[in-house]
Amino acid sequence: MLVSVYLIAITAEAMSGALAAGRRNMDLFGVSLVAFLTALGGGTVRDIMLGNFPISWTQHPSYIYLTIGAGLITMPIARVMHRLHRLFLLLDAAGLIAFTIIGCNVALELGYSIPVVVMAGITTGIFGGILRDVLCNRTPQVLRHELYASVSLLVALLHLLLRHLGVEEDINILASFAVGLALRLSAIRWGWSLPVFSYAPGRWHG
Amino acid sequence: MLVSVYLIAITAEAMSGALAAGRRNMDLFGVSLVAFLTALGGGTVRDIMLGNFPISWTQHPSYIYLTIGAGLITMPIARVMHRLHRLFLLLDAAGLIAFTIIGCNVALELGYSIPVVVMAGITTGIFGGILRDVLCNRTPQVLRHELYASVSLLVALLHLLLRHLGVEEDINILASFAVGLALRLSAIRWGWSLPVFSYAPGRWHG
Amino acid sequence: MLVSVYLIAITAEAMSGALAAGRRNMDLFGVSLVAFLTALGGGTVRDIMLGNFPISWTQHPSYIYLTIGAGLITMPIARVMHRLHRLFLLLDAAGLIAFTIIGCNVALELGYSIPVVVMAGITTGIFGGILRDVLCNRTPQVLRHELYASVSLLVALLHLLLRHLGVEEDINILASFAVGLALRLSAIRWGWSLPVFSYAPGRWHG
């Protein structure tokens, strides 16, 4: 199940990368690269951070075709996608959760300590979006918007807690998805967000 | 021959990095760092992506001196270089092709599959320019301008095809250069570019 | 001693990262991430560059808590910190020097050549600040301001020279700190800076 969700997730992430590239008037190649990095950049940064070579996607060339293909197909259908906005938010949320769980599992298998496992999960979840925004020259959205990275953190902690309690992996994954999706979709629906830190030196703030 | 072209190429790339740093009013140190990363950043990202440690330039300290020296010498001669614009476009094109072929060969020797080999070639070719633009806080030019990254892609594919057909390496390199240079210089001359994807949410597009 | 200075330094760097995130109105999570990367990003880039896996901080989870904690505590006390500006410049300078010496020593132990050792020292010293600025979407300050990266370069060279001359490590570290702090604080006090390269194509420059 995690694999199916993962494939859907990298497709959705690639499309979000393509749209961001389109906002910067990039060409076919730029769209492909940003789509690829948005989808697979989180796992790449995680693998480098964990010293986990060869990097996962280099062993699965089909992921390269899938993400670049998804990026390119976004160009003619961008207008239609606009109407499927809600579906994309759902797929994106599912992707965030799948990426987080996969990231935790990779670090666990390599024997890293719990704090590093959590960071590997979050890194897999959010770094694709950060790379997308850095390449498109804007402040990373995931660090500013309604609950997003926090959902990744919570899913990582929940997944590790259930694992520690001896819950079977399949049930664990289902529970992590249920809680993560509920939280993320609620955050979108009601605009939940973390407190924002606004610091303007020279003026009053707090 | 590839080595000579490579040395000329990293010099030219370092100079292009120095000019970009100058546009941001960086100091001597910033110019050196941006020059270094523009010239050797593509190979660095490739080596990290392939898990190819130690990273190439750490075994060739002379490359460090050459690129930083080229960056610093750009400062007094920037005015003159303006007149040599065409020469620089030629050197830059040669560098793009040399970087691409070298990147493919590194990945081939490590036993990666063809799609990864192609990506290693392109990464070596274009990531120096991407790092330059990210450090100088602008949207990467190589993802927007006339055929550039596409030339890298085509050279990588051609090089691998000729290799697959059993063409001798020297002739292969010459052919790759001939086709790559012809394509890149034609693109500059006649302004060839890939279709651009312009996406402005909320407005009509397509 | 180096370890104590290091802990103070990553705390100070984390706080500087949090302030930068606050200027971009990031949320709690963004503040934590930028604080973490500002403090530990330099060492991370160094370890990746040297192929030194596992990356240092993954073996010291307490560093994760310390830097994220320092980032979060910055939010309520930012107003007070404004008055402690000078103390922070001092801690930041001490951190720059400690990071540089540690970076050199890591590369030395791995058997890299002197130019790479120097680059490892500088990378550890300044890359946290560069990552902070790239994430906050601004041109890296360390590449533009009064003597900063140059202090890192000088400390690296001095440290290696004293080591080459057979000076005992403790005295070497003290001397490196004395010279580095004197230079950095003088540069701040009297506004010393490196020559700036301003290049504006199409206009006169020099």
Automatic annotation (TrEMBL), chains A, B, C:
<feature type="domain" description="Glycine transporter">
    <location>
        <begin position="6"/>
        <end position="76"/>
    </location>
</feature>
<feature type="domain" description="Glycine transporter">
    <location>
        <begin position="90"/>
        <end position="163"/>
    </location>
</feature>
<feature type="transmembrane region" description="Helical">
    <location>
        <begin position="87"/>
        <end position="108"/>
    </location>
</feature>
<keyword id="KW-0472">Membrane</keyword>
<dbReference type="GO" id="GO:0005886">
    <property type="term" value="C:plasma membrane"/>
</dbReference>
<protein>
    <recommendedName>
        <fullName>Glycine transporter domain-containing protein</fullName>
    </recommendedName>
</protein>
<feature type="transmembrane region" description="Helical">
    <location>
        <begin position="114"/>
        <end position="135"/>
    </location>
</feature>
<keyword id="KW-1003">Cell membrane</keyword>
<keyword id="KW-0812">Transmembrane</keyword>
<feature type="transmembrane region" description="Helical">
    <location>
        <begin position="62"/>
        <end position="80"/>
    </location>
</feature>
<keyword id="KW-1133">Transmembrane helix</keyword>
<dbReference type="InterPro" id="IPR005115">
    <property type="entry name" value="Gly_transporter"/>
</dbReference>
<dbReference type="Pfam" id="PF03458">
    <property type="entry name" value="Gly_transporter"/>
</dbReference>
<comment type="similarity">
    <text>Belongs to the UPF0126 family.</text>
</comment>
